[in-house]
Amino acid sequence: MKFVTCPSLGKRALSEFTYGGRYEQEPAQETVSEKEWADYVFYHNGAPKVQIEWWYHRPTGIWFLFERDTLTDRINKVDFARKGMTHEA
Amino acid sequence: MPLRLLKYAWKKPEDEPRFFPSEKPLKEAYDVVIIGGGGHGMACAYYLAKEHGITNVAVLEQGYIGGGNTGRNTTIVRSNYLTAEGVKFYDESLSLFEDLSDDFDLNIFYSTRGHFTLAHTDSAMRTMRWRAEVNKHYGIDSEVVDVETIQKEVPYMDMTCNGQHPVMGALYHAPGSVARHDAVAWGYARGAQMRGVEIHQKTKVMDIKTKGGKVVGVETDRGFVEAKKVISAVAGSTPRITEMLDIKTPIEIFPLQACVTEPVKPFMDTIVVSGSLHVYVSQSSRGELVMGASVDPAELHSTRSTLDFVEGLTDQMMDLFPFTSRMKIMRQWAGMADITPDFAPIMGKTDIEGFYLDAGWGTWGFKATPVSGKTMAYTVANDRPHELIKPFALSRYEDFKLVGEKGAASVGH
Ligand SMILES: Cc1cc2nc3c(=O)[nH]c(=O)nc-3n(C[C@H](O)[C@H](O)[C@H](O)COP(=O)(O)OP(=O)(O)OC[C@H]3O[C@@H](n4cnc5c(N)ncnc54)[C@H](O)[C@@H]3O)c2cc1C
Predict the structure, then answer these.
(1) pTM
(2) CATH homologous superfamily, domain B111-176+252-339
(3) Please, which residues bridge with residue B30 across strands?
(4) Per-residue pLDDT reduced to its tens digit, B343-368
(5) Which residues of chain B have pLDDT under 70?
(6) Which fold has domain B27-73+182-250+342-406?
(7) pLDDT tens digits for range A47-62
(8) Which of B397, B300, B412, B369 is nearest to B93 (CA)?
(9) Pocket of ligand 1 (CB under 6 A)
């Protein structure tokens, strides 16, 4: 079983979390063009990389951001989604 | 076939011709290079040679023939999808599948089983009725059946699912089948080779070269190969190939796992799928239960297996078939599924002249092997998308014209 160490919660089983997809800056709603919106929603470079992702801790209802390598599955950093990234995993 | 077998019995083994002719040296230039020696790449090569007379073709495969998702899938072939586009496309594939053994002179063990998609909720029943109507409209053998009919066909199944998720009915698709996955890749590969196509195993494409927005060739770990047209048929490696050309796609890679039990006496000749429980099962001709589920929870470029998967799957499987609690799992494995947001493939031309994509096959692309090969070959030969694949263009997301196949494709098979 895979574990991840989170602020406040400590070491938790990864199976307690739900993946919420890549974290990306949302384009400004008022000025975004249809093309930019389609790019934001759909088109990306899906090759292996280190990315920031949403993860939901079901028992506490807290959203976290993980920095994870999609080739090795290593989680490098974790923090509360509201705060941004600071903690080492 | 039996006559061939009899003749073989009287021959010395060394008189039998090699299945694949020995590999030729890699040439400097080809008209067409196909990246990926899975079923899709091989089928495309086969139809290019057979139907379009294009034989100066090389299939480049980094590993061995069929070693990707083709050799890892649970081989379910069906056409009871949800959208008009999907139904027409997969139905064409099914009819091609039925003739493949003859076409190849090779037994692909195509076995028609009948396919039940169980519904355990009112909303699932609604989707089944909707699918049945779409299917019937296009002449596909598909109907909603009641609990008694299911129980008669699958007598060992606990229709209450351990009292937890009673089965309310099912979508029944009589033509649902299984086939020998390797044989499909091998048959296409041999047929293509016999018509002049070259297959180069252990040859990895490292980069794709363009000049003025046009493809000029591929860089491999065995040197540069010139090519006017390049087709990517690499399933789970698609984002690594599109990255070479800076093409952005909605494809995300998720591991998809499967496993088999020890062999037991034949007791189930149908394919059983439960969308709500996210599991499916069929019994192989060797007697093993071949079982699969949905993709892993998060994006990952890896074919590692997990205990979480087997635990989750067997938990549900024991609700459906209580006696399986006494069976042992023999093997488990994973493939990399190239998932799209609308659970439909991405096929055809791209913004780069001479570069074609056959991708987005996710958890559902084995059944499409013949039709994708045929339509991709047409698209490449004529530099114009085949009618059947027009709805699957990469640009559909930009045009907000998604295909919406999730209801029929999300449990991986
Ligand atoms: C566990 C599992 C169960 C499934 N069950 C079903 C099912 O029941 N029914 C169904 O219809 N579908 C199913 N699928 C999906 C199906 O297996 C795939 O969609 C299909 O096999 C894709 O075939 P392909 O030829 O496109 O890709 P692959 O068979 O993956 O072939 C791609 C090839 O490209 C090669 N390659 C990659 N990168 C390079 C490079 N740079 N240079 C050279 N070669 C390269 C790889 O080595 C590989 O051999 C399942 C998949 C999995 C993983």
Answers:
(1) 0.95
(2) D-Amino Acid Oxidase, subunit A, domain 2 (3.30.9.10)
(3) B227
(4) 999 999 999 999 999 999 999 999 99
(5) 1-2, 410
(6) FAD/NAD(P)-binding domain (3.50.50)
(7) 999 999 999 999 999 9
(8) B369
(9) B 35-41, 60-63, 67-70, 72-76, 204-205, 233-237, 256-258, 292, 335, 337, 361, 363-367, 412-413
